[in-house]
Amino acid sequence: MEERMFVHKIVLGLTATALLGSCSMMMGAGGSTYTFKHKANAADPTAMGKAVATTKDGMVSTTLTLTGLTPNKAYIAHYHAFGPESNTDPCASNGPVTLGFPGFTADASGNATTAVTGDMAKIAGDQGAYLNVHYASDPSVVPICAPVKMTKG
Ligand SMILES: [Cu+2]
Question: For the CHRD domain, which residue ranges apply (predicted)?
Answer without folding.
Answer: 43-139
